[in-house]
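Action item from last week, closing it out:
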Amino acid sequence: MASGIRAALSRLYSSVATSVTRRRLSPRVGAVDFGDLRRTAPISRVFGFDRGVPVDRYYIEQFLQANASLVRGSVLEIGDCTYTTRFGGQAVEHSDVLHLTGDSPEATIVADLTNAPSIESERFDCIILTQTLHFTYDMASEVSELHRILKPGGSVLCTVPGISQISRFDMDRWGDFWRLTSRSARDLFATAFADENIEVVTYGNVLSAVALLHGLAVSELTADELDAHDDDYQVIVAIRATRAANS
C-alpha cells in the first residue's frame, strides 16, 4: 500500500513539475518579446556570410568531420575542393571538382550530374555533395549517377537543407527546387543504394532554424544552443550512402 501511494505521489509531482516548467518556458499569449527579430525582412539575405560563419555550415562541417575517414583516395567535390582538402588531407590521392557550367576556376569536370556519361563508372572513392542536390529537379537521376561513378565500397557524403531560405543566386541560374526531410532523403537514396548502406542524420532545433532564416552567424549562438537536437526542426539533413562492395 505504502509503495503504491509513493508511486502515485511521484507521478503527481512529475506532472506538476512538467506543467510548471512548460509555463515558465512558454510566455503567455501576447507577451512574447520578439526584440530584433520582429521584422519582415531578414537580418542578412546571404545566409549570414556577411556576419561570419552561417549556421548551416556549422552542421555541414560537423557531419563531414564525423565522416572524415571516408574522404580518401579519388575524391569528387562540387564547386571547389575546400572540404576535400580540409577533411581529406593527405589521404586524398586525386581531387576533382565538378561544375555545371565550368565557371569555377577549380573545375576539372564540366558536367550535369543528372546525366554525366563523360564521367567513367566506378571512378571515385568519395563524393562530397554539400548543399547542391536540391538545385536539381530530377534528384533521382542524380542519385543514380552518384551510385554509378562511385567505386564499390565508395561513399557519397551529401547534405541538403530541411529548413532554409531560397538561394536567390542559384534560383535565378539553374533553379532551387527542393527542401528535404530525413524520410524523403532516405527514400530518395534508396532508389539507387541498398537501404542498409544509407545513414541519414539531422541537425538543428527551432532556435537555430530561426537564426538561419534571419541570417545570423554561428558566433551569435552558443554551442549548447547549436547542438540541441530537435528532429521536428531539421535544419540540415545529411546522408552517407555507400555503394555495396560487390555491386
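Closing note: Residues 1 and 7 are 10 Å apart (CA to CA).
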